[in-house]
Amino acid sequence: MKKLEAIKYILLGIWSVSIFTRLVGKLTNLYEIPKWSIYLTLVSLILWTTLSLTMYFIKKMKKLFALLCVLGVVLPYYNIYKFIEANNWEWSTALFFEQINLNYGMKILNADLTVVATTFLIFIIYKLNVKYISLKQFLKYFISLFIVGFSLALPLYLYDNYNRD
After folding, report:
1. What is the DSSP letter of 63?
2. What phi-psi label fits residue 164: left (phi over 0), alpha (psi between -120 and 50 degrees) or beta?
3. Which of 32, 65, 140, 149 is the most buried (most CB within 10 A)?
């Protein structure tokens, strides 16, 4: 935990210095602010926030997994709702798959999600086979994977199987 705290303070220092440098540069016009400094500021802020939240939830992991389960249902279904709304309240599977494979960025995400969801499916089949999880638990994860998606199945598995050491 002390190493995480040290990393957090280093990131806070990087973020603070980059914000201060940007402010001085903007106010005085003494120098041109490099484009990469914007990215450094954003990345350090995102990492610091993520690390702070992780350190907070480390003692409350079950609550975090429960929150991720809720987000894993709400976020995908919100986007399905917006897709249907944008298409005059009609579902079109052909249009859905056309838009989901629209560019290489989306294809990267699709390939990544397909591999990770398949890996999780193989993992829970293995866990069922070695009797680590019951058939009831397997069906719960299997159904959540195919009805909602990996965004629910993994946090649900982690919620059910988290043991505080």
Report:
1. H
2. beta
3. 65
